[in-house]
Amino acid sequence: MGASLRDATRTPSRRVGTQRLNAKVHKGVSLRTSALPLAFLCVLLLLLPLPASAAQTQPERTPLTLELLQERLRTPILREGNLTVDLQKMAIDLRPENASFRDAFYQLLRKELGTKPLGLDLSYALILGDFVGSDLGLRTLLYAKAIAPIFTATEQEKLERLRFVCLESLAIALPNSKDCRSLLGTESTPASEIAVFRGVLTLVQTRFNGEVKFSNTFFLQSVDAQGATFLQPTNWTETRFARPVSFISANFQQPSNFQGSIFFEKANFKKIKFRELADFQGSIFETTANFNQAIFKQLAKFSSVQWQGNADFSEVDFANQAQFTKADFNQFLLLTEATFEQGVSFREAEFNQLVNLQGANILNQADFSDARFAKEACLSVPGLTFNSNKAKILGNPGEIGQMFCIPTLQGNQNILRNLGQNFRQQQQVADANELEYTKQRLRLIEFGHRLTATNINSATVANLMNLGFSATQAEAIAQRRLVKSFRNSSELLTIADIDLEKYTQLSDRLIVGETLSIVGWLLQAWSWLALSVLLLLSGYGTNFWLVFGVGGLAIAYFGLLFWLVDRYRRLHPVPIIPTSYETISILVSFSVLEFFSLLAIFRNAEQPWLTLGCLLIIIVPVPMALLIRLYQQGRYHDLMNVSYFTEDGTFRQLRLLIGRLPVIPRNQTFRERYMPLLCDRRWNWLNYYDFSLNNLVKLGFNDIRLRDEHLPGIISALAWYQWSLGLIYITLVLWTLSRTIPGLNLLIYLK
């Protein structure tokens, strides 16, 4: 029993121990099981590549001491043919608490860099405290006779080059910089001193924690600051860069001041970031300036800047306002795909070449008021993103609309519509009409292209060869369209036998589309002809003075013809001819009217000779044929000594005669009411102009018509011909007035 009791008491204890052991084993297994995923995750993280931003670490920098600096000054390295003081990957402490080192640093570098044309390489360095770069250069007077003899002939030539730039700037404004005022003076002054940096300055990936000051410094060699970071304000005012300068991908965290600087060679600011104010006011770029893909987070000031070379602002993002006021662009201004989130001002700017706004995005306001455009300059806006309901383009009324240039209508109809609406909202009707004229002119070019171009989907092999393709190329085109028709002409480049040169040579003479039938071709030709006449004679209803000139020329011409057929009837047997006074009067008045009409045409028509030719084709052949026939067959009728023209003597005043016909009705009442013109009156010749005015404009001082009896049919046909032209002309006049008077324009466009 005792044994049983012991066994009974021992058994529970064993169970408890076994349970504890099992619990420990289970706990260990569970810990190992939960640790496996963690271990796997750690291995995975080690194997996977880190992002570039995480993998990139700051370079290890060596603290610069005076001993190390003296050593580097004694042993400059040769880099790209230039002796350079190598201070790469240094940590340079120039803070006020390290004043003794700072003063020695500037003193040692100034001594070496001033006496020798040594470069300075601070790439990947960390600059703590303010960096006064102008203290590293050699101070010298810029007056020609006072330039230090230590400079080489090449260096002195570069310094003298500044004088010519200052003289050139006099043509625009009086230079404000100290060095320009000194160079243009007669004596040197202490204020004319400038710091000259004789060697190459390299600041690749350099980080400046304090302010950077290079004001009034002349760099005789290149400056390379690619990827540099400036955490505090930078001062480059009145700095001169004699060689190329590069700030590619540099980052300016605080305001940067380049006022009055001169860039003699290429200035590269590609992908630069200005997070605060960027001020380039009054600077001069002698050659190309590249700001491609730059970012301006705050105000960008480029007022009064002289751009002697191309100014490239392609793909630039202006998050705030941009000011180009009074800037002078001597070459191309490239704003391709640039974005203007706020207003941009080009007020009083001068453009001598094309301004490329292709694909640009204007979200607020672009102001071109008082800007001056040379003959070759224009605003190229294909693909411009512009919403007239949210943004505005401003310019001088009657001028800015002429400055837009668009190569084709295809793909640009929206921008033309938005620009037109923009100017209508500002009541600049002339500019809106100019854009409408541009649109219709491009439409005319498309019509002509469809009529004359070769359709590559239907042209025979022989036609393709006559166009300029070789036999192999023509056969390849024919085989390709059997498989699938061409959707656009650029698909020709998918054919192996056709290269880009051949395509560029012939693309303007090719078209892709359905083949036109004879009727379709004739309708297309009629549309082309009608649009051509409207553009030539009225600017598509946008130019009233052009219409006025066309009408004045026609009125004077027909007035002379009517005087001739009425007053110069025969020489034999009894002469019926006008007096000398009447002949001189009509010819002088005709010359005066024609002169002012031609003046209006040549001042307002884009192609005045074509306009004049088109008008002459309309008004000369038929009347001249009738006139020649009239004098060939002669006149044999009663009342030979009585004028063919009659007037209503019961009412004399300026009035509209819309329903008036050129010949009086066959009724005795009208014959009694309308009396023949009195040819012996001194001012009778004015009545022929009045009759011509009645026929063409339906407006006159007297109601003058042809008599209904003893009237040669040729004379009647001549009057009816002008009267028919008058119906078309008065319609053209009213249509043009409706497009050029703001009040009437609202009735048309506010549908």
Automatic annotation (TrEMBL):
InterPro entries: 5peptide_repeat, RuvA_2-like
Entry keyword annotation includes Membrane: yes
Keywords: Membrane, Transmembrane, Transmembrane helix
Transmembrane segments: 518-537, 544-564, 584-602, 609-631, 727-750
Protein name per the record: Low-complexity protein
Native source organism of the sequence: Nostoc punctiforme NIES-2108
